[in-house]
Amino acid sequence: MSAAGRAPGRPKPARILSGDRAMYSSTEGQS
After folding, report:
1. What does the chain look like in DSSP terms, one character per residue?
2. What is the model's pTM?
């Protein structure tokens, strides 16, 4: 949720692959 506030232009930041991917597992985690 806080990630979306940091990146209003891009809802999926590159840091997702760092560890936040767990939250976006359905967005880019499986992709």
Report:
1. -HHHHH-SS-SS-GGGGTTGGGTTIIIII--
2. 0.13
